[in-house]
Design a protein that fits this description.
The chain has ten helices and twelve strands. It is an alpha/beta fold. The protein folds into two domains: 123 residues, Rossmann fold (3-Layer(aba) Sandwich); 144 residues, Rossmann fold. The strands form three sheets. The chain has a five-stranded parallel β-sheet. A five-stranded parallel β-sheet has the order 8-6-9-10-11, sandwiched between helices. The chain has a two-stranded antiparallel sheet with strand order 7-12. β4, α4 and β5 form a beta-alpha-beta unit. The longest helix is centred in the middle third of the chain and has 32 residues. It is elongated.
């Protein structure tokens, strides 16, 4: 019974109810997974066809809806058009009731239910990610991106969301569309280099930027500081230094109550071995 779409009515004429019962009983598209029921049967319907031309029916619907949440009302009318009631943002079916109109209405009900279900799922996901520390790793090296994907959850406790970009252009498009707390940014990339990406981020966003480089030159650190970066790490980042930089970053971002830097594990990590050798994509 859970897979059956249950339809009922309020305020329709005896003749209309008879026609509906006949349609639900014989139409191939309806008889297997749809059923027409009376409200007094004690079974909660999914959909109620409501005679919008009757004030009494509207009153009955309000009383019914107050006790039965989640039932979809479908306005039916012999005098109104869909344009005249579209401001109500409800599904509308003109009368007299025909097979075509009934099937079209039920398709709208199913589509609306799926849309509402997806909206609830997306809302739940959004709520779950609302407090997440949002990190973007920007590096043209797959092995570095993979390393950070594995390492960051190992080092950072609390809600975490990590995304990746392989070049400066993609990174900028991502950052303009979404708010990011922390950016790990490679210095040398094809096209727009990390210094220019960092300047662009700092000109518009409050994100923390940690530069990643394979070089240890003091000049590179100066260039990184001039571009506005908040910290500088040599690849592959050593656990101790990474933890120190993240601790400072979380403090600057005011995230200490939501995220924390995990204590290092006594067991040796094999993740670092990923960096330096190509991975299949």
């Amino acid at each position: 019974m859970d897979n059956i779409l249950r339809v009922s009515q309020i305020g329709l004429s005896t003749r209309e109810v008879t026609v509906l019962r006949s349609m639900f009983g014989v139409l191939p598209k309806l008889k297997n997974d749809h059923v027409f029921i009376d409200l007094d049967e004690g079974i909660k319907p999914h959909v109620v066809l409501l005679n919008a031309d009757s004030h009494q029916a509207i009153g009955e619907w309000k009383a019914f809806a107050a006790k039965h949440k989640g039932v979809v009302p479908v306005l039916t009318s012999a005098t109104k058009s869909s344009d005249s009631v579209k401001h109500l943002k409800l599904i509308f079916m003109p009368r007299p009731i025909t097979v075509k109109r009934l099937l079209s209405m039920l398709e709208q009900v199913v589509a609306a239910s799926l849309s509402a279900r997806n909206a609830r799922a997306n809302s739940l996901k959004a709520t779950e990610k609302e407090d997440a520390l949002r990190i973007l790793v920007v590096d043209d090296s797959l092995s570095v991106r993979k390393y950070m994907e594995l390492k960051l959850p190992e080092v950072i406790a609390g809600p975490l969301s990590i995304d990746f970009a392989s070049n400066g252009r993609d990174a900028m498009e991502y950052i303009w569309e979404k708010d990011v707390h922390l950016v790990f940014l490679d210095v040398i990339m094809p096209g727009m280099d990390g210094y220019n990406v960092c300047k662009a981020i700092k000109a518009e966003k409050l994100s923390d930027v940690i530069m990643l480089t394979g070089k240890k030159s003091p000049i590179d650190r100066v260039r990184g500081s001039l571009s506005g970066c908040d910290a500088y790490l040599t690849k592959p980042p050593q656990d101790k230094k990474l933890r120190e930089v993240l601790q400072q970053s979380l403090k600057r971002l005011g995230r200490e109550g939501l995220n924390a830097v995990r204590e290092p594990s006594p067991a040796p990590s094999r993740i670092r071995r990923v960096v330096g050798r190509p991975l299949s994509s």
